[in-house]
Amino acid sequence: MNCPSCGKTLSAPESAVGKKAKCPACGTLMIVPEAVLEAEEIGAAGEQPASNDYNLLDDITGAAASQPPTSPAGLGQEPARRPCPECGEMIVAGAAKCRFCGAVFDPRVRAGGTTSRLTSVPNYLVQAILVTLFCCLPFGIVAIVFASQVNARVQAGDMRGALSASQSAKTWCWISFGIGLAAIAAYVMLPGGVRHVRH
Amino acid sequence: MIWIRRFLLGVAATCCIALVYFVDPATRPPFYPPCPFYALTGLYCPGCGSLRAVHEVLHGNVGGALKLNPLLVLSIPLLCLLIVFQKWRYHPSVSWVALFALLAYWILRNIRVCPFTWLAPH
Fold first, then answer.
1. What is the DSSP secondary-structure string of A77-89?
2. Does any CB of chain A come closer than 8 Å to the CB of residue B120?
3. What is the pTM of this model?
4. Cβ separation of A197 and B39 shorter than 8 Å?
5. Model confidence over A135-150: pLDDT tens digits?
6. Residue B107 in contact with partner chain A when CB distance is under 8 A
């Protein structure tokens, strides 16, 4: 496995799977994932192209449509499911990638390198800073707090928590942006009374 | 899908930058709406002066922009770095530094005593 923070290749005994461990190179806390050997067995179908990273995340709240059933026998019925070895959410058994935490099981996708778990939970930090600076309201600060939580939870290996914080960060960015737009709209509608106040 | 969204975002950003470039926010009566926080409370928010500062930066006057909103001017290169280097966005200290810098800036620029008045638009 690779350290989620510094990318150093590490090895751990079988008994350590699922437990917390510290990277000897950078000190980052992580949860030891299941062995790649097992991942090869379950992830062999690997229909999900690696470039679909963001589409998958967009479908987090949606139906299971983002993970097509991989066996022909599964068509027309509920596809077989299994808990994700990383975050424990139920996912399609043949999935190459967990749609909740973004963990990649398909060794080919993994070997592609760019699809790391770190980048698959967006934290909306840049958007949060931008709405704070340009919408002039305290809600952008809330979004930055949630962005910080995403980072902290990714570091701790808590993918489910990171995802929920990510959703909150996104929501607060939009709230801030929406209220900013509403303020502009209100200003345009209002008569000239408040127009002497400068931005 | 992601590319269509990025394209639309790029178009919108370009339009906004062009608007701020051509329409001076410092004219009176102002063309742009006031900061809602300033209009309501009379206090500066971390973004007050940012439109004027961006206008000055776009016209090459970084010194003038620093007088209007120094944090915004400093954050432009930093945000570009964050956009380019994804990994930095996920470093825990980056988000905490951003949070505390913004909160401290918000408070300090409202103190009407000499060194802090440099943080407010002047």
1. SPPPEEE-TTT--
2. no
3. 0.56
4. yes
5. 767 788 888 888 888 8
6. no
